[in-house]
């Protein structure tokens, strides 16, 4: 077995505690899990393979863990006294039936063993990705047909959006069950007006955050200061007028005490929509044009 780091040793040997292992790919997480599995068996002489459940997120990870556990038990079966060797070899014989699998397979086995308690037909099947996608698409189509058949006064606002866009949006939303449940709970008894107000509040809060981000952006402030300190020699030329217009929008963006966040946000949008300076001013205006381009891009 390779030399353990302090963190690996702590994760493997802290059997009496909950342990979170967070590390990147290829850093040895599976190795640590296998050694922790072995440590559980080593610390409790009465523990068996049947007493341990190892849950992974993918079948590939489960197969890799089973394979590595098998190799480790085979190695342990060749060291120590006869009693120890016999115990590890007994575990090795049982490793094929070890409960090492995905969260889906674990839940499936629990429900199949206790269908009455779960209130689920024991003949249920787990959908694969293709079946799940087809069922979701079919459900969305049925819901949209249901909406279209209703009076416009009920779902008129929803039908202002392209039907394909609605289908994609609903699919994304329903694939995030926690978000869906939270929204259902929040909107259960809401009126259309209160939902619109809720949406507007979200937009307003986002605008506030956006403007705060702009004010805190060091590059934006740097470019602003450069633009303000570098007046073009001919203020009435196309470049001078463009610089003046940009400075006007920037003044509004930073007018926190005089203008609302929405008004300052509109100024930022206007800045972002300004036409580029192109080659105005020639070679001598290169740095000024770069500054203006950077500000427009940041906005």
Folded structure, characterized:
This protein has 299 residues and is mainly α. It has three domains: 6-113, P-loop containing nucleotide triphosphate hydrolases (Rossmann fold), CATH 3.40.50.300; 130-189, no CATH class; 206-298. The chain has 15 helices and two strands. It has a two-stranded parallel ribbon with strand order 1-2. α3 (59-76) runs antiparallel to α4 (82-94) and α12 packs antiparallel against α15 (286-298). The longest helix is centred in the last third of the chain and has 25 residues, at 192-216. It starts with 5 loop residues before the first helix and ends with a helix.
Summarize the structure.
This protein is mainly α. It is built from 15 helices and two strands.
What Rg, in angstroms, do the CA atoms define? 32 Å
In total, how many beta strands? 2
Number of domains: 3
* Shape type: flat
In terms of topology, how is this protein built?
Blueprint: H1 6-13, H2 29-43, E1 53-56, H3 59-76, H4 82-94, E2 99-102, H5 103-113, H6 115-118, H7 129-148, H8 152-155, H9 163-174, H10 177-187, H11 192-216, H12 218-229, H13 238-253, H14 261-272, H15 286-298
Parallel strand pairs: 1-2
Helix pairs in contact: 1-2, 2-3, 3-4, 7-9, 11-14, 12-15, 13-14
Q: Top keywords for this entry?
A:
299 residues, mainly alpha, Rossmann fold, two-stranded parallel ribbon, 15 helices, 65% helix, 3% strand
């Amino acid at each position: 077995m390779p030399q353990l780091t302090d963190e690996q040793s702590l994760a493997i040997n802290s059997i009496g505690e909950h342990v979170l292992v967070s590390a990147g790919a290829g850093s040895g997480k599976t190795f640590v899990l296998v050694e922790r599995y072995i440590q559980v068996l080593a610390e409790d002489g009465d523990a068996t393979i049947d007493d341990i459940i190892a849950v992974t997120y993918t079948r590939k990870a489960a197969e890799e863990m089973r394979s590595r556990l098998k190799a480790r038990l085979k190695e342990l079966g060749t060291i120590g006294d006869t009693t120890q060797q016999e115990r590890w070899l007994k575990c090795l014989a049982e490793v094929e039936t070890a409960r090492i699998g995905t969260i889906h397979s674990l839940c499936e086995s629990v429900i199949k063993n206790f269908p009455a308690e779960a209130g689920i037909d024991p003949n249920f099947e787990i959908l694969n990705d293709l079946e799940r996608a087809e069922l979701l698409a079919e459900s969305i189509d049925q819901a949209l047909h249901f909406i279209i058949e209703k009076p416009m006064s009920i779902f008129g606002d929803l039908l202002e959006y392209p039907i394909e866009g609605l289908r994609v949006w609903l699919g994304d939303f329903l694939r995030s069950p926690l978000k869906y449940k939270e929204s259902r709970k929040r909107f259960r008894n809401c009126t259309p007006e209160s939902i619109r107000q809720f949406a507007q509040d979200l937009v307003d809060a986002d605008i506030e955050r956006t403007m705060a981000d702009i004010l805190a952006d060091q590059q934006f402030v740097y470019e602003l200061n450069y633009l303000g300190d570098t007046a073009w020699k001919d203020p009435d030329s196309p470049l001078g007028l463009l610089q003046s217009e940009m400075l006007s929008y920037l003044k509004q963006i930073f007018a926190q005490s005089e203008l609302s966040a929405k008004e300052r946000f509109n100024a930022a949008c206007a800045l972002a929509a300004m036409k580029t300076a192109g080659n105005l001013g020639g070679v001598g205006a290169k740095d000024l044009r770069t500054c203006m381009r950077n500000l427009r891009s940041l906005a």
